[in-house]
Protein 1
Amino acid sequence: MHSTRRQWLQGMAVLASMPLASWANTDNAPRFAAAWAVGAELYVGVLQLPASPDQSLRIQHAHAIPTRAHGMTQLADGSLLFASRRPGDWLLRVDPNGQEQWHWIEADRAFNGHVIASHDGRHLYTTETDLADSQGLIGVRDVRTLEKIAEWRTGGMDPHQLLLDRDGSLMVANGGIPTQPETGRRKLKLTHMDSSIARLLPAQDGQIAGQWRLTDTRLSLRHLAWGPEVAWATERRWLGIALQAEHDSAEQKQQAPVLALFDGQQLHAADLPTGAQWQGYGGDISCHGLHFAVSCPRADQLTWWQVPATAQATGQCLRQDSQQGVYCVSNDSVIHPLQPSTSTLWSGGAQQVLQWPQRNTVASTAHLALDNHWVQI
């Protein structure tokens, strides 16, 4: 492991000596922090929509990475932060001039692919696994050095995405799947799954203030998006959670829901429409106005869900739209990330980028393979 890291850093020293262009946006075209592959080569950086929809998604800024990246976020100073997963052993920070800052995790920990900044911007929160007992952690890191200064237990295994609530608390999706992160995607003892949503209080050293589970224990809660405030209680709003089914049979997976909803007090799965064939796999999730968009890449479908108007409603699927290999979805909540977007959403697939609600094709992606997520910057 250490030899591999040294070799990688030596190779990166050559790249670091090359002139780097800033990702200043001179033509106001939408840009995204993203991860992608070109053949066998892996990259993170900035992608930009072209001037014409018949042109390819532009690689504005690219940084080679040793293993796959997963989640990313933009910090207050404009820097981009990318987190690895399977194996999750590195963080990469890239400043607006393209300068890289690498950080390698401790030998007995693994990153789980997502990172965000704290409410005051002084710290970073990373989802991690303790390799000694497979339990989930939130790593609390200095935003400047990326060094860990504390860690908090999440109350479960396989913590994945995390979001800040408006009061500064953390909502964490414990995926609940026993795995060996160092071996990649290998899953162990799925009958022992324990997936949950947990609320942690940073002001109280990560104390768990609440934890909620679905009735079906083979549904893994993984990716999160805030919805709008609900009409029946202005201090509460829906949290949408993309689900991944881990049932034993293909038929069970086919019949599994891809969305769960949390109103601050209760967690439940949304109803699966009759005839839906999404293979029980919700890849990414975003909010657009009064709708959640959940990508189903194994079914080549982007699904749209009405945000419930009452606490008793379960969530209704309004429609599904075809898009080959659709995975990453992102709205334009750049300035106010805790507020859902009301104007534009972009979905990236194997062949094209689509803009919603118009469903316009805005770029080709045939020259690269987009990974799980992207974030508009």
Protein 2
Amino acid sequence: MTSTLARPAPGTTRQAEKGEPRGRPRLRALDGLRLLAALMVAAYHYGGRGGEVTTAWGSSPKEQFPTLHAYFSYGCLGVQVFFVISGFVICMSGWGRPLRSFFASRASRLLPAYWVAVLLVTAVFALPVVVHEAVSPSDALVNLTMLQQPLGVDRVLGVCWTLWAEVRFYALFALCVVMPGASRRRVILFCALWILAAAIAEGANEPLLDLVLMPEYAPFFVGGIGLYLVHRDRRDSYAWGIVGVSWLIGQHYAVQDLWHAPSPDAFSHRTSFGIVLIVTLGFAAVAAVALGLLDRANWRWLTVAGALTYPFYLVHEHLGWVVIHALHRGLGIGSAETFALTIVAMLLLARLLNRYVEDTLTPKLRARLSRPSPEPPSEAA
């Protein structure tokens, strides 16, 4: 999710069959949105839910944050915002790119920080002073493949379920758009067929179709793709139609999955209005980037924010629990201060991962994967 694109002049349409120009300026506002979505998810994991974080705090976050916990509970919708951004960025980065290059770009972007995060969390959780249980060595090794979820293996990183959704999206997009060659017509057809097929899968209640087509997440990925088409030509009626339909279906799934009736036993109550509002704001924020309304947000620090987002997202949950336990229960630091210091600590760790892992390994892995396979020597007649 690192490639970006210059905004076309108002009212212009680029030739869809042509590749995008090199040296395009960064959409730095999109980097800022990515970090904001990651911080939303962190707020949810630290103060917006129960579960294992209760062990870290020593009591429910509901008691630690009597008022804010209800707002933090909406932070899980940062995932849906991530998926909209991902649809935008993957369509952008795959346009005009051969399949080998697309695969190399995605693999080199995801894997180095992921591998190190899996090993780091496994090692930390194995320490005797850490109260959280580590997965078995065998399960930790399977986690390095990113296929632990379909294989039914315990997850090292709680957030990796979203990466499994991303990987399936990449595969669909690569097979249907990148491999035959991206064009406006092909992308529109892909979006329309995916939304229709996902609706059919939902109605059929067939697990295999659900696994491949992801009905509950497809609208967000497709919505981001539609917004990229808007970015290319803001007058594209089909693109706006894709965005509108995706928003309508996406808010439905978000409410269906995240709303529940008010209950004194529940951690918190997310209202339908609040869920729809956040989904709408997520679409609107990416639309503002697509339309160039945030072009003035061109500060260099946003690029740094974008670079920190992925490693922060990987490590913040489980290692954040360890930091919360050390600060709040070990040193007696207050809840608000612990919350803020944990965010800062995870951002600093993310900076280290970005500087010493991603900056070092990503270019090397990309170059290796982009290299054509050597032809085998021909046999003598």
Protein 3
Amino acid sequence: MTTAGTPPAPVTGPLSGVRVVELAGIGPGPFAAMLLADLGADVVRVDRPGGVGLGIDPACDVTNRNKRSLVVDLKAPEGSERVLDLAERADILVEGYRPGVAERLGVGPQECHARNPRLVYGRMTGWGQDGPLADRAGHDVAYIALTGTLGMIGRPDEPPAVPANLLGDYAGGSLYLVVGVLAALHHARATGTGQVVDAAIVDGTAHLSSMIHGMLAAGGWQDKRAANLLDGGCPYYGTYETADGGYMAVGALEAKFYAEFLRLLGLDGLASARTDWTRWGELRERVAAAFKARTRAEWTAVFDGSDACVAPVLSLREAPGHPHLAARGTFTEHEGITQPAPAPRFSATPATLRTGPARPGADTAAVVRDWGLPAHPTDDCDDLVTDGG
């Protein structure tokens, strides 16, 4: 466990030397800051007294790995000054409040840029900083619903399938925030001028569907679920149940992969069905019946080493043990927690998992020392460090 006064682990990664302030929140903001930390940035998470979030044990919240934490009460008279001291020394600040909240707390872009004109100020929200819904509460499922992306997912005779919070919060939110702040950091270093990055989940998620909108305009995509090549409507791009209740994923789109798929599945007379939509119903039924005849493990063995583009659908607990992922080290174990390893990979400046989840307030003394912060009466925060939620 990282404790106050403990020197930080040696930092590697392409962002080594970049300083980031994260104003604690939940969801896409912490994940974006984790990605920056994984890539080597010195991320200081400003936690609130009493904590935030969904009640997860801080020791298990891997989105706070590779970070350091101090506790600041932004509602206290000296709270905003504490954050501004950090912002003055930072390259990037990330916050995920509703529009106007950071300004009311005295840590908005204007106040931060007055102290540090080079600062990249990243704002993570669902609806964005303006627009009719900007001030409304929301969560991932509502954001992706309005963009049309949620309506694409699932069977046509069932409600749209919710893709956890991966599509909105993390793909449309966190990843776009990271791209935005790094692009703005490049600009700041070239010009000496920082800026505000407005990363809205609705914008990012809509942007993810760019190819689909092109296909829709060209007449190559129907605006309904499970009716298209990539949404489960195509019988050789989807999932099928096996004899033991498992599932196999099929992505045999190209002709040569489709031919290999049929051969290994033991089906004949279906070569022309690939491009004949009138036969897709027949093709789906025969493929489904074939998969139901054997277990997931048996089909995995059949397709092993082939180019049929077929893979078993694994659970979260099963995935780290897959031979390919194990060989690459896609997952790792740190402090007893199995978790995804940092990604992507760099040949010269490898990203590393240096420390476990930051505990609220545990690193105050070290951050004060390393960042050269002014002394503060609440710097000794050892009593805030806990092992539980």
